[in-house]
Design brief:
200 residues; 7 helices; seven-stranded mixed beta sheet; alpha/beta; Maf protein
């Protein structure tokens, strides 16, 4: 059996690494959509966090699938939901500091979506949700954490990376680890195996 190559519609290094570590044949191409404008429009229409993540993931996959119509293309997105608000990645260091200070001693949700295109058509989608409770960490620790981890955490909504020192910020995590990293990997691998795109 020949494994079907996958194109990741993203420049995310962690998502690419997760797919490669799972033994997939994968390349990446950034989709370059106006995420901020699309997110604002969806929020104005009172879309749910899961629907926002799903829409952004589909638009990324579609953008790359148009360029590569015969390929298997994966779009991904992640939205942080907290007290009725939907957050994206921090815009700068002060925004990262604000996000972390707001989240401490509280619980928030992450909604991670994947949409798969094949031959220019959407064939599968999935949205995973996880809940994370942050400890009541001190201002001094937050400043030290940011000084050690900026700008790496600029690429993560909430300004933390659970796969690194960010795990020390949390007292409890409910949900799939890969969903927290922004790629619900297990449902994706199950579907790829079911369809014969990868060995099973």
């Amino acid at each position: 059996m020949t494994m079907t190559p996958l194109v990741l519609a993203s420049a995310s290094k962690i998502r690419l690494s997760l797919l490669q570590n799972a033994g997939l044949v994968v390349t990446s191409q950034a989709a370059n959509i106006d995420e901020a404008a699309i997110r604002a429009s969806l929020l104005a229409d009172q879309a749910s966090p899961g629907d926002i993540a799903d829409t952004l993931a589909e638009l990324k996959a579609r953008k790359v699938a148009v360029r590569l119509p015969k390929q298997l293309v994966l779009g991904c997105d992640q939205i942080l939901a907290f007290e009725g608000q939907c957050w994206a990645k921090p815009e700068d260091l002060p925004d990262a500091r604000r996000q972390l200070r707001t989240l401490r001693n509280r619980t928030h949700s992450l909604h991670s979506s994947v949409v798969l295109y094949h031959e220019s058509q959407p064939i599968w989608r999935y949205v995973g949700t996880a809940r994370l409770s942050m400890r009541d960490v001190s201002d001094d620790y937050l400043e030290a954490y940011l000084s050690r981890n900026w700008p790496q955490v600029a690429h993560s909504v909430g300004a933390y990376q659970l796969e690194g020192e960010g795990v020390r910020l949390f007292s409890a995590v409910e949900g799939d680890y890969f969903t927290i990293l922004g790629l619900p990997l297990l449902p994706l691998l199950s579907y790829l195996a079911l369809r014969g795109f990868i060995e099973s």
